[in-house]
Amino acid sequence: MTFRNALTTFWLGVTIMICTQPAGAAAWISEMPKPADVLAKIQGSDAYDTAARQYAAMQILVRIRGDMVGDRAFRNETTAAEKALVLAYSGESRRIQTALIESLPPDERTGKDSLRAR
Questions:
Q1: What is the pLDDT tens value at each position of the chain, 118 positions in all?
Q2: How far apart are CA 97 and CA 67, in angstroms?
Q3: CA 63 to chain CA mean position, Å
């Protein structure tokens, strides 16, 4: 085995160990913002704009969490803290979406030309 092959094998082994350890994977959670902090910091030009921006932020945070968890989610290897985080973000996202839709006039809630679609 050449030095290059040995080094490649070593780094591949280290990468596999890091990527497959659920306990170490949750260290990033402490750096993620709490939903209430995100909502408090994001303001728009009016109530509708604020809600839309907050909704988008929650959706982005859900995606970030998904990227951080990776394929461990498909192997049911996420930690309780990771599950709680996605529930918090997605719960806020749904709450904002529901409030936005309910704030629209009934005839603007559906349809491709509706205010909701825009």
A1: 554 544 455 455 445 544 554 545 567 888 899 999 999 999 999 988 899 899 999 999 999 999 998 898 889 888 999 999 999 999 999 999 999 888 888 888 888 888 777 7
A2: 23
A3: 4
CA distance 90 to 65: 11
What is the C-alpha separation between 118 and 109, in angstroms, rounded? 10
C-alpha span between 78 and 117 (Å, rounded) = 34
Q: In whole angstroms, give the CA distance from residue 79 to residue 82.
A: 5
* C-alpha pair distances (Å), 115 with each of 17, 42, 96, 111: 49, 22, 16, 9
Residues 6 or more apart in contact with residue 104 via CB below 8 angstroms: 114, 115, 116
Return d(Cα 57, Cα 75) in angstroms, integer: 27
**Structure token pair of residue 109:** 């809630």
- Cβ pair 33, 61 in contact under 8 A: yes
